[in-house]
Amino acid sequence: MLDKRSNKRPKNTFTYINQCTIYIALLLFSNLAASGQKKENNKPRLPFEITSSVGGELNRFSTLKGYLRANDMESPNFRLFHIGLGVAYNFNPIIIGISLSGGNRGGFAQRNSLQSYRRAYISTNKIQHRSFIISPEIGIGYQRFSTYMVKDGGEGNFLDFMETRSNQVKLKNHGTALDFALGLKRIKNDRIYPFIRLGYRYGLRSNPWSVENAHVYDAPSDRINNVYLQLLFGRGR
After folding, report:
1. In angstroms, rounded to a whole number, what is the distance separating the alpha carbons of residues 25 and 118?
2. What separation in angstroms does the CA of 50 have from each of 1, 29, 155?
3. Any residues with CB less than 8 A from the CB of 6 and at least 6 apart, and which?
4. Half-sphere CA count of 74, side-chain side, radius 13 A
5. Looking at per-residue confidence, does 93 or 28 come out higher?
6. Phi and psi at residue 188, in whole multiples of 5°?
7. d(Cα 213, Cα 165) in Å, to the nearest integer?
8. CA nearest 175: which of 8, 4, 62?
9. Fewer CB within a 10 Å sphere, N or C end of the chain?
């Protein structure tokens, strides 16, 4: 059985990731400011990479799906579209970066799903073939996911639905994940242009689903388990 504390985020893990993200951000921008003072051919050398992204992802959540199917209920759609931003600094040969993204499925319609994700990662640009770079990435991230379940065919008077028989329930899940990705970049005019990333996230632990504004004691648990594909727009050195 789950007690009330089951619906709370693991503060230690979340705080650790926030601290790492802030530290890396300060490290990136402090080095960026320092490198801007160095001149080469009367031009500042700025070995950083800034990107924006658009793409899609597929979340598995197999335990919740199995639970709903066993009770003759339709599973939400866990395929999302997302957009994101990222910044990385090239310490040569290691690249350290951070990224933020948000996903959506269905807008504000019924059964919509929402996701937010932040990560810190290390990478390299040393795997090169002609004008292309294959860039492996290993990181750690924190994901928050929510989706709506809408129960069809309910009956009752208006007050019943306001008090006890709501036909829509908001489910939430969160967790920390290892993030493995492979990026493809192109070199042109002494610049590096990222343009695609394929990745996989694997949750470090299984966390129970929660119901918004309610305490539940027998909720199924899932770990983050998804694949994603992104188109990248940006450049770096």
Report:
1. 12
2. 46, 12, 53
3. 208, 210, 219
4. 10
5. 93
6. -155, 125
7. 15
8. 8
9. N
CA separation for the pair 229, 5 (Å, rounded): 35
The pLDDT value recorded for residue 78 is: 86
SS3 for 47-99, per residue? Answer: CEEEEEEEEEEEECCHHHHHHHHHCCCCCCCCEEEEEEEEEEEECCCEEEEEE
pLDDT at residue 23 is higher than 80: no
pLDDT in tens, 151-175: 766 666 766 666 666 667 889 999 9
Is residue 103 a contact partner of residue 82, using CB atoms and an 8 Å limit?
yes
Tell me how far apart the alpha carbons of residues 110 and 105 are, in angstroms, rounded to a whole number.
Answer: 10
Query: pLDDT by residue (tens digit) across 82-141?
Result: 999 999 999 989 999 999 999 887 654 555 788 999 999 999 999 998 899 999 999 999
Q: Give the separation between CA 225 and CA 220, rounded to whole angstroms.
A: 15
User: Which two structure tokens, joined as six digits, stand for 181?
Assistant: 């990705």
pLDDT tens-digit map of 175-185: 999 999 999 99
Whole-model pTM: value is 0.76
Q: Are 117 and 135 in contact (CB under 8 A)?
A: no
The amino acid occupying position 198 is L
